[in-house]
């Protein structure tokens, strides 16, 4: 089995997510996560790296037109 470089894996995973219709910025973030998995795990494949990156899809997906989350500023105890 061939061992790919981090850049090659990022390009493959990024292209996969762009083909699926994921926004380019989100796809690049997922590609970085998948490439980290590929480089850090001994027997990782491209398919397992894509599956690993998909686990982060929901948390990194941006919703167009949604307002930013307003966090309550702690006032302390009264």
Helix and strand topology:
Blueprint: H1 6-19, H2 24-40, H3 46-54, H4 57-60
Helix pairs in contact: 1-2, 1-3, 2-3
Please provide a written account of the structure.
The protein has 78 residues and is mainly alpha-helical. The chain has a domain of 51 residues. It is built from four helices and no strands. Helix 2 crosses helix 3.
Query: Which series of helices and strands comes N to C?
Result: HHHH
Specify the biggest β-sheet: none
Q: Mean of residue pLDDT?
A: 83
Total count of helical runs of at least 4 residues: 4
* Helix-and-strand structural type: mainly alpha
Task: Give a short summary of the structure.
The protein is mainly alpha-helical and 78 residues long. The protein is 56% helix and 0% strand. It has a domain at 6-56.
